[in-house]
């Protein structure tokens, strides 16, 4: 009898959770807003809106493949661009949790063939963007204004034809070749003096994972993050020619306003490269409320949420924003906000978490002409104000 009672209770809880966000007038109003912002007949977005783990919205809008007129769904796999960085940070911190590295140590202890930076560059500083490392302009100035002046020590790689190397589109380096290039780059400022966003730093972190663990970043994260969290549709795409099931194809508009294919051929991972879908991000989001990773998961996730330094992200505007392991930590009128955006060829992403409300707002667009911030702002306003 007790077993039957328990089973009934579980079923009732499941039913309540399933229908807690059924189509109410408020939900219908959000649907209308999203449909007005993401045209049904153009490349679109997968949107996930969750409260306490329950789906308010979990669906696709617009098209996943414009050539074949295939509708977007919540099951489509998207390139996450810089939202990938929190997963890289998690991998590095798991290496530390496993006793294989010390976050306070100089990166050169673990990664071979780095230049003499002339100062200590700690792993923690690289994670927090305070190591003084540069960005893609150290490799190539393609796409920058003609009067752009590159940092001292920039490589300014050239393609075979002689024009500036086009990173991510048309020109090509293998992963190992790209790693060799990144290992030669100088610092652009003295470490731990200011916050400065560095994609190159996160590629160095991917190299760190590879050289310390003996696994690629893809293999390591699959073994120690994605499989334990049952994220079966998530991986770092490090193979330019592999087939990706349920891929959302990337698009942009040309100067005439017509859509064109916008797919990268850069499959170096670390600064980006993560591919995932809404359901797996729901599982990732749950990890912050009910942690599973690390030797002591509760302590591990608490430390993961601590800023890497006290250096502010935007001191010039007085914004109280800090950076914690691939996440921007701030406060707005809705409370504590944990967020990161991502933009790359054919990818436009906004991921926001409000821990106090256990509220998740995720917009994954494969159309770079869509204003993803406006969509996320609309969802926040709907949830907190309407």
- Beta-strand content: 15-25%
Strand order of the largest sheet: 2-1-14-13-12-11-10
The span between the termini is: 45 Å
Average predicted local confidence, pLDDT:
92
Look at the helices and sheets and give the structural class. Answer: alpha+beta
Low-confidence spans: pLDDT under 50, at least 5 residues? 7-20
Q: Helical stretch count?
A: 10
Summarize the biggest pleated sheet: 7 strands, antiparallel
Give the helix level as a range of percent. Answer: 25-40%
Which term fits the overall shape? Answer: globular
Give the assembly state of these chains.
single chain
What is the N-to-C succession of helices and strands?
A: HHEEEEEHHHHHEEEEHHEEEEEH
Keywords: Signal
Pfam family, one: Beta-lactamase
Protein name: Alkaline D-peptidase
Organism: Paraglaciecola chathamensis
Would you kindly provide a written description of the structure presented here, covering whatever features stand out?
29% of the residues lie in helices and 17% in strands. It has 386 residues and is of the alpha+beta class. Strands 2-1-14-13-12-11-10 form a 7-stranded antiparallel β-sheet, sandwiched between helices. Helix 3 (85-97) runs parallel beside helix 6 (199-213). The radius of gyration is 21 Å and the shape is globular. It starts with a helix and ends with a helix. It comes from Paraglaciecola chathamensis.
């Amino acid at each position: 009898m007790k077993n039957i009672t328990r089973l009934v209770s579980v079923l009732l809880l499941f039913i309540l959770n399933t229908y807690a966000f059924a189509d109410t007038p408020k939900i219908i109003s959000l649907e209308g807003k999203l449909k007005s912002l993401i045209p049904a007949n153009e490349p679109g977005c997968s949107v996930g809106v969750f409260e306490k783990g329950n789906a308010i919205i979990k669906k696709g809008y617009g098209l996943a493949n414009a050539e074949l007129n295939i509708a977007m769904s919540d099951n489509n796999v998207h390139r996450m661009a810089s939202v990938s960085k929190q997963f890289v940070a998690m991998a590095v911190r798991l290496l530390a949790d496993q006793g294989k590295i010390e976050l306070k140590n100089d990166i050169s202890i673990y990664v071979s063939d780095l230049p003499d930076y002339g100062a200590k560059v700690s792993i923690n500083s690289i994670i927090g963007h305070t190591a003084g490392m540069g960005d893609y302009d150290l490799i190539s100035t393609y796409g920058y204004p003609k009067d752009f002046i590159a940092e001292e020590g920039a490589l300014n790689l050239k393609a075979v034809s002689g024009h500036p190397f086009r990173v991510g589109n048309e020109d090509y380096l293998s992963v190992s070749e790209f790693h060799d290039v990144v290992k030669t780059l100088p610092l652009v400022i003295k470490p731990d003096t200011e916050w400065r966003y560095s994609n190159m730093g996160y590629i160095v972190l991917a190299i760190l994972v590879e050289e310390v663990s003996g696994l690629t970043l893809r293999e390591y994260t699959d073994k120690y993050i994605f499989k334990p969290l049952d994220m079966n549709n998530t991986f770092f795409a490090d193979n330019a020619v592999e087939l990706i099931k349920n891929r959302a194809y990337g698009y942009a508009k040309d100067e005439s306003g017509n859509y064109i294919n916008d797919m990268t051929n850069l499959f170096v991972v670390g600064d980006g490269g993560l591919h995932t879908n809404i359901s797996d991000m729901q599982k990732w989001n749950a990890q912050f409320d009910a942690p599973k990773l690390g030797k002591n998961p509760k302590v591990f996730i608490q430390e993961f949420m601590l800023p890497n330094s006290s250096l502010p992200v935007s001191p010039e505007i007085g914004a109280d924003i800090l950076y914690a392991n691939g996440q921007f930590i701030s406060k707005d009128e809705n409370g504590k906000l944990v967020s990161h955006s991502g933009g790359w060829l054919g990818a436009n992403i906004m991921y926001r978490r409000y821990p106090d409300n256990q509220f998740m707002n995720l917009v994954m667009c494969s159309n770079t002409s869509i204003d993803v911030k406006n969509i996320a702002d609309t969802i926040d306003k709907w949830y907190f104000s309407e």
